[in-house]
Amino acid sequence: MTESIQFLFLGLGLGLVLALLYVQVWKVRYTRALRRDAAQRSGAVRAGKVYEQLAPWAPDFGFDPSDARFLGAPVDYVVFDGLAAGDVRRVVFVEVKTGRAELNARERSVRDAIRAGRVDWVEHRARP
To answer: For residue 127, how many other CB atoms are within 10 A of its CB?
Structure first.
């Protein structure tokens, strides 16, 4: 009986050691995968930020680059279409996206307000 108990404890101990070893190997692989994913996402974000700045000079931008004013947030550009020629035909809000990026909640909110016509002109005069 004593020998059976010793084998039982030996088996349990060996199982525990193997389980701990497995967890450590899994943890190293999981951490490495997370870091790799974070680095890839970070690179994609950096590339997107660079493209945001260069977008007005892209052939498919559709507007004169000198008519575009960079805001960055909550939309990337306000384009005063025709400003360089001296005749603004329309004001266009442009959000630049790359890859599979989607609008965030704030960007959607701005888009919805513009599409619903909730846009105004306010003239603010400084008082001396």
So the answer is: 3
